[in-house]
Description:
The complex is a heterodimer.
Chain A: H1 2-21, E1 27-30, E2 56-60, E3 63-64, E4 70-71, H2 76-81, E5 86-87, E6 91-96, H3 102-117, E7 124-129, H4 130-136, E8 138-139, H5 141-148, E9 155-160, H6 163-174, E10 181-187, H7 195-208, E11 212-217, E12 228-234, E13 240-242, E14 245-247, E15 255-262, E16 270-276, E17 281-284, H8 322-325
Chain B: E1 2-6, E2 9-14, H1 17-21, H2 30-36, E3 43-44, H3 47-61, E4 68-71, E5 75-78, H4 90-104, E6 111-112, H5 116-126, E7 129-130, H6 136-140, H7 152-160, H8 166-171, H9 174-181, H10 183-193, E8 209-219, H11 222-243, E9 245-256, E10 261-272, H12 275-288, E11 299-311, H13 328-341, E12 346-351, H14 357-360, E13 361-365, E14 397-405, E15 419-422, E16 425-438, E17 453-460, E18 465-471, E19 482-488
Parallel strand pairs in B: 1-3, 6-7
Antiparallel strand pairs in B: 1-2, 4-5, 8-11, 9-10, 9-11, 12-13, 14-19, 15-16, 16-17, 17-18, 18-19
Amino acid sequence: MATSAVARETVFALRRQIAKIEGTLPERLAAPAGERPRARPDSPIGGTPEPTPDITIIRRGLAVASPDAFLPTGVERLDAALSGGLPKAALTEIHGLETRNAGAVAGFVLSLVSLILRGQNLPVLWIGTSEIFREAGFPYARGLQGLFGIAPKQLLFSEAAKLTDALWVAEEAAKMTALAAIILEIRGSPQRLDLTATRRLHARAQSAGRPVFLLRQAGEAEPTAAPVRLIVSAAAAASRRTIAGPLAGSIGRPAFTVSIGKSRSALPGQFTLEWNPDEHSFEERREERPENSVAVVSASRSRADPAPAPGTVVAFPAVGSFASGDQPSRPQRPAHIGPRRAG
Amino acid sequence: MISHRDRNAQRISALDERAEALHLKHGMGIADARAMHPSIDVVEADPEADRRLLEGLADWCDRYTPLVALDGADGLYLDVTGCTHLFGGERAMLDDILARFFQQGFDVRAGLAATPGAAWAAARFCGDRIVVSGEEEALLAPLPLAALRIEPDIRTSLESVGLRTAGAVMAAPRAPLARRFGSTLLLRLDQALGRLDEAVSPRLPVAPLSVERHLAEPVVLTAEIERLVEMLAVTLKVDLERRGEGARMLALLLFRVDGAVSRIAVGTSRPLREPKLIQRLFHERLAALEQDIDAGYGFDLVRLSVLAAAAFDMQQADLTGEAQDDGADIALFADRIRARLGDNAVLKAIAVESHLPERAVATIPFSEAPQRTTPPKRPDRKDAPPTTTFPPERPIRLFRSPEPIEVPATEMPEGPPMNFRWRRALYRVARAEGPERIAPEWWRQGEEDAPTRDYFRIEDAEGRRYWLYRQGLYGAGQPSPRWFMHGVFA
């Protein structure tokens, strides 16, 4: 036991040493939970094994940064894969394989921004080339407010005709601490946005301590200085949840398929995330499990269920609407209320 | 020699000294001139180019006074009131002007007097003369009638009655003159003699504040210009502080040695007086204009003017020495981007009360945002229904203009499409929600008969969500409805 603890200490010391020599990436070196030393030599004799805190070293540059250098997504598996979450003071690349995925990619980034903005009143700058705003649509403030709780006054947009100009704006913006986050959106894999350009962005983001999200619509995986690259595509939304179970044919909360394209610590993996616009949090979607098998309203005993209404039942208005929240929807109308008369 | 067309004949409109030496005259026919001297070189007159040149010269004369006005096709008025001491007195100033024009290759005559009329006459008929206030009469008396700036037909009729000099007109009784030759003559006379005020309307608005620096050695490098801007801005700051203002619009004037003037303007989104920040704004602007500014032999005068100023409210710093962060960083950042990339480079979204999706959000340039933060609001009614807690779901991206899509078939006449073709790709609709009907804003002019829109949320087979709408209704007697893609959901 003692020998293995010593060996572990040595391994960690070595890893720390390696981290110090190598790169300037924020890194978190945590002891695996199972191998935690049970007791220390100076613990009280015969006492219960004292839980030792995780050995966690996070380095940013040469200084040791606090654990809140990471933005936890709230999804355990993804956070574990990214060893704590997305780095906050860094460039993060988010790819969409096709331009038509722009909605999902933008949605995922805005969810992250929404997580960052919690309790902050700083503005967010969204930089894009004219091309991408024309191809994929301009961000719509009403939708952003409804889905991600980002107020219009917190949003700044910068539209540049040329990629060079967009990059310049991004570099200038990345130096600022008065912005909560910067989103740079471009299309394709232009030559100009090479390793050097991303390194410049990453260095500025690191020194300002603010995240820069680089959205590449229809982009290919290229060498990049960003420590993390995620590939996002749309996932079919789950049905709306009503009190009587999922509403067939309805389109529920936004869902994304996220796969890790590059990360220093994570293995490639794929996650299906669902954004909860009410809680402003992510949930991972697993296999569909039965919601609440007990019927809330007892079925009519005297006669068979009424014939279903023609067509599909469609929930509207959308999120957390009255129909889905407070009142039972039409087919489950309680029996003790008489049939509604016209007029 | 320059010719112009006058009453169907080519006539000499301007000629140089060598042509004058050949006894050619202004107004002579080109045919006659060619008959006398077949080797003369005749160039067609280009009044537009002359005008541009004169305006360029007027810009250059800005170095002497901000009040420069054009006079006809070949003259400039400079209102030098209060400026002469900066150049070492009237004589020195006049000499400086003449010398610099001569160096640029212009043959210029100048006169300086207390009234525009007298100065005009002095410049055109005496040449290089300074008329002291009160001596206008003595100056004008021996001059011909043309010195009075009167119409040629009045002049001819005056000459026909024997009044051949300005002095003769001055000596004549006023009432008959006015009756016979109109009031213009006396007006011009009085203006020239200083009995009536004459305003010279400057070509450009006068900046409320400007500072400048004459350079013994012309500067060429952009970095040096930037340093000069900062030095000028330090001086400007004192004046702005005294007035309790900050600059909203600044212009940098660069006077090139050979007479060309570059005018560079930057705007700020909030009043500004800090020299360092002003310098950074001009740094961006100069970087953007690098190709357009030709330093040539260098600039020998640099001027920084405040074109528009606004009240500057001082910020109280707290004890830690940090002022309240009110977005000053952001404003400066936006200004710098605006200086380099133009007004529309930084946009801000503003919610507008409208139920048409494309009108519900206005994106306006950042610099305009503070003035328009409050959208027009209806007065609150007491019995108004409470605002809905759950606004209808809106897409996160909206296309600038809805893109037409092809819908071959819908499930029901008023229902969502089963598939559609957008940007030449076919999409199969997996699920659909809707319709949400959005009626046109009939109270607006020209939109009374606009068709209604039925919006559908669509999810395609691969899980992408779109916002489509059908414009118009299916029905007899109506044009068949068209489908559009308006936005995408997350």
